[in-house]
Design a protein that fits this description.
Largest sheet: 4 strands, mixed
Shape: elongated
Distance between the termini: 74 Å
Radius of gyration: 32 Å
Order of helices and strands: EEEEHEEEEEEEEEEHEEEEH
Strand content: 35-45%
Strand order of the largest sheet: 1-11-12-4
Number of strands: 18
Number of helices: 3
Length: about 260
């Protein structure tokens, strides 16, 4: 049970009629934003959704308590009617939902006074579900949690996900990218440095003679993507060249250049 693995890519949206002519409820849209940390770890969601809920007086039947529905006289309880027509020498028969009972096959003789025979009324439903690790921008569905249709097919709840930009990391699928500034001395001599990752710090080695914009891969420090394993983090070494030098620094560089 639960909603832990109910997400599917959204294919379509809207009301109308479902299978066998049953009326389908409208889909509902819920928009939310998540952090890059949520992409890594997943996120527990709790929402109060304003929607049509079952009438507690008639138990969603639409009938006054103590009464019941009767068989539709138009379709004989089938919910569908066959209509034939002739075109020249050919005859055509179409099957369509009954307009009198709206495809239900039954009619309400004594409508519930509380919901006016609809079987539903405006209310709030509390939902809890998990956004799985690797969630990405896009629309996802929770089937059957849209608008309620008694004796029909409930609509779906569309969860629209937007991943917030991260202040430190840029993301491309499973991989993360990070710019680390180093001094020109560290680039020339080499140094062990500590860089941030999405779930803690990591030590990396700057080799002596490192060139500007060198990329170092930190394996397994990216994020999962659509239920796959974690990607990698790529650290670009940005060599910080000072704009102004003291006379002593200039002299040392000139001596280095001429040595």
């Amino acid at each position: 049970g639960g909603f832990e693995s109910i997400f599917e890519t959204l294919l379509g949206r809207g009301g109308g009629f479902g299978s066998y002519g049953r009326q389908k409820g409208a889909d509902l849209l819920y928009e939310t934003s998540v952090t890059l940390e949520d992409v890594l770890n997943g996120k527990r969601m709790e929402i109060d959704l304003k929607k049509d809920v079952a009438c507690d007086v008639c138990q969603a039947t639409g009938c006054e308590p103590g009464s019941s529905k009767s068989t539709c006289s138009e379709c004989g309880g089938h919910g569908q009617v066959r209509r034939g027509r002739k075109m020249g020498f050919a005859s055509f028969v179409t099957v369509e939902p009954c307009s009198k009972c709206r495809g239900q096959g039954q009619m309400i003789e004594k409508p519930c006074k509380d919901c006016k025979g609809r079987g539903t009324k405006k209310g709030t439903k509390h939902l809890e579900f998990n956004l799985p690790p690797g969630i990405d921008n896009g629309d996802y569905t929770i089937q059957g949690e849209g608008e309620l249709v008694p004796d029909g097919v409930n609509g779906d709840l569309i969860i629209r996900i937007r991943v917030q930009p991260h202040p430190q990391f840029k993301r491309d699928g499973r991989d993360l990218f990070y710019d680390q500034e180093i001094s020109i001395v560290d680039a020339m001599l080499g140094k062990k440095i500590t860089v941030p990752t999405i779930d803690g710090s990591e030590n990396i080695t700057v080799e002596s003679g490192t060139q500007p914009n060198t990329i170092i891969k930190v394996k397994g420090k990216g994020v999962p993507y659509q239920n796959s394993s974690r990607g990698d983090q790529y650290v670009r070494l940005v060599v910080n060249i000072p704009k102004k030098l003291s006379k002593k620094q200039k002299k040392l560089l000139e001596e280095f250049e001429n040595s």
